[in-house]
Amino acid sequence: MIKSILVTGANGQLGSEIQALSKAYSQYEFTFTNKDTLDLSNLCKLEDFFDSKSFDIIINCAAYTAVDKAEEDQDKAKILNHKSVNLLSKIAKNRDISLIHISTDYVFDGTSHIPYTEDMKTCPQSVYGQTKLDGENAIIEVNPKNSMIIRTSWVYSSYGNNFVKTMLRLGKERDSLGVIFDQVGTPTYARDLAQVILDAVPKLKNDSVEIYHYSNEGVCSWYDFSKAIFELSHVNCEVNAIETFQYPTPAKRPSYSILNKSKIKKEFEISVPYWKDSLKDCLKIMGEI
Ligand SMILES: NC(=O)c1ccc[n+]([C@@H]2O[C@H](COP(=O)([O-])OP(=O)(O)OC[C@H]3O[C@@H](n4cnc5c(N)ncnc54)[C@H](OP(=O)(O)O)[C@@H]3O)[C@@H](O)[C@H]2O)c1
Fold first, then answer.
1. Helical segments of the chain, H only
2. Mutation test of ligand 1: which of 35, 159, 186, 196 has the most ligand atoms closer than 8 Å to its C-beta?
3. What is the CA radius of gyration of the chain?
4. pLDDT in tens, 236-267
5. Residue whose C-alpha is closest to residue 19's, from 157, 186, 200
6. Nearest 5°: phi and psi at 276?
7. What per-residue confidence (pLDDT) applies to 288?
8. Confidence band (pLDDT; 50, 70, 90) for 1?
9. Following DSSP, what letter does each residue of 127-158 receive, concatenated?
10. φ, ψ dihedrals at 9, nearest 5°
């Protein structure tokens, strides 16, 4: 039987990549919604949407992702990243729908020296991180069946706005740039994550919500990431390594953000591409290589 999948926030980076890949998954019937067709912050109307159509799976790609703006705009971040996720989980539970939800490395404080496993202590340092953690906890408490939370990091894509696009723009405008070297993590090409999610769908079988970590393979700083972007796309811009204090932002970022992906690799039998290989793929699609 054809399964029906609802993808929320479908015009964002991850949602757009799922849309792009969806054509290869004829076993699913997809419904893609955006802020105009399904506003998740309109909590009073959210349930009504599910009265008109039935779904087997929700992939929640919608989120308040403006990390610095969230420090000021706490209410909006809370509604989208926590309250709407809580309601979505209840809807999923009551209607026997699997919920696939995306969370972030920013639930950790970045003081670890070994890659974060799913069970390590969370301690968000920002409003964004706290609201995302609250969303995770709401799902775990409601506990819809066959559901998963995937924490990811440093997401980029040929769609939307992201670090890769900002660096390409600035690198073409300027002769030199200062980029932070004392925050390390792993970039994630949203297309790779979209693929993992779509391939995980038929394998979801758990009574309690499971958390998984997914990013690309390897480790780099923002400095290394920008060097690779310029080298691969032949942008002639000098990159100078700077420290976090030299580029102050309203939201505090973890200095160490590396996720251990052993659980998702083992349980879903996936191999994870190296971050630089995926960056090359994305730059090719963007026409930069
Ligand atoms: N980007 C990263 O580096 C990163 C890192 C770790 C985890 N994550 C998580 O990964 C997931 C996907 O992120 P992404 O990078 O694809 O984010 P994104 O590009 O910012 O996409 C989020 C989408 O949510 C939509 N949205 C905003 N308010 C909405 C509302 N009220 N109702 C429905 N949709 C709404 C946005 O629409 P508009 O654009 O029209 O506002 C946007 O299309 C998120 O859960 C995020 O927290 C992202």
1. 13-22, 43-51, 74-78, 84-95, 127-142, 163-173, 190-200, 222-232, 262-267, 275-285
2. 35
3. 19
4. 999 999 999 999 999 999 999 999 999 999 99
5. 157
6. -75, -35
7. 97
8. confident
9. HHHHHHHHHHHHHHHH--TT-EEEEE-SEE-S
10. 60, 40
What pTM, to 2 d.p., does this model score? 0.97
Q: Is the CB of 164 under 6 A from ligand 1?
A: no
By annotation, the residues acting in catalysis are 128
**What pLDDT, on the 0 to 100 scale, is given for residue 149?**
98
Angle at 51 between CA 88 and CA 46, to 5 degrees: 35
Answer whether 41 contacts ligand 1 (Cβ < 6 A). yes
* For ligand 1, atom 14: residue with the closest CA: 13
Instruction: Name 274's bridge partners.
Output: 217
- Encode pLDDT of 43-58 as tens digits: 999 999 999 889 999 9
Side chain identity at residue 108, one-letter code: F
Q: Is 61 in the pocket of ligand 1 (CB under 6 A)?
A: yes
Q: Does any ligand 1 atom lie closer than 6 A to the CB of residue 73?
A: no
